Every structure is written in structure tokens, then in C-alpha cells.
Amino acid sequence: MYFNKKIIKIVGYTLIFLVIFTCSVVLAVDDSIYVWSSETEPLTSETSAEIEKTEETNGDNLNLQSGGAILIEQKTGKVLYNHNAHEKLRPASVTKVMSILLIMEALDSGRIALTDKVPCTEDAAGMGGSQIWLEVGEELTVDEMLKAICVVSANDCTEQFRHL
To answer: Exposure string (b/e) for 129-155, b if CB count within 10 Å is 16 or more?
Structure first.
């Protein structure tokens, strides 16, 4: 029961992380945008011209601080709003979702436990970006590091699990 509560907390932190650090998820291939539909029909696509048309009519009237965003109506695939939809952006902290998945799989398989102490390496301490400023040799539990990754987007904690 204790382990299940911890998993629920971790999943909760992960969802909070996703909401905070991502605007939208769209699969871009070549010059088409493919939208997942809950209907049984296959993926629908909008052409670059249609996306550029919505950008001309929308401008950036939302005054977004993000590098890019797109809002697509799920059933029709119509682009309702976009801001720099074709701009290639770095994935940033979204890559931490994969790290969290690998940590969860290692927990599930028994290779690590939430109570295991993990010392900070020199590489992790020098990561830069979002971090909790661990010092070389400082130890945190896997549980504490997961919380730091999910809540603070801690690069130094994420680096500790690079070789899972």
C-alpha cells in the first residue's frame, strides 16, 4: 500500500510537470501536421498553407511567452490557433518524461528502491539549467530525486539516472 501511494504521488508530480513545461504535443512530419483523432478514422492532416493562414488571421493576439504553440480541434483537425507552429524548438524538459519512465521501470523491476541513496557525481553537479544545486558527493534518496525532477525540473538529479 505504501508503494502504491508513492507511485500515485510520483505520477501526480509528473502530470504537474507536464502541464507546466509543455504547451502542446503535435507530431510534425515534413510540412504536414498530423493530429490524433479519437474517432476510428486515420490521422488527418493540415497543410502548411492552412497553418500559415491561421497565423495570418490570429497573429499573436494571445501575447504568448512561448516559442510556439498550436491549438487543433480534435474531431476535424482544423487549426484554430497557432503561433510559430513550424518553428523548430528544443525539447527542453520534456525529455525528462523519458527519464522518469526509465526510473519507474527500474523501480518496478527492483533494480533500485525509493529509499536508495544516490550520491551526486561531478557531471551532475555541473549540469547547469534547472537544478537544485547538488554538491559533489551529496546524497539524496531516489524518492527525493524523483520529486526534484518532477517539481523543479532538476537537471542535476536527472543526470544521476542517465545509465539506468
So the answer is: ebbbebeeeeebebbebbbbbbeebbb
Q: Coil, helix or strand for 147?
A: helix
The domain ranges of the chain are: 2-17+91-160, 27-83
For residue 67 the three cell numbers come to 516559442
The mean pLDDT values, 10 residues at a time, for the chain of 164 residues are 64 62 41 46 51 56 78 87 83 84 94 95 88 93 94 90 76
Between the CA of residue 39 and those of 70, 75, 115, what are the distances in Å?
Answer: 21, 7, 44
Q: Taking the model in full, what pTM does it have? A: 0.52
| Helix, strand or coil, per DSSP, at residue 61 | coil
Active site residues: 93, 96, 153
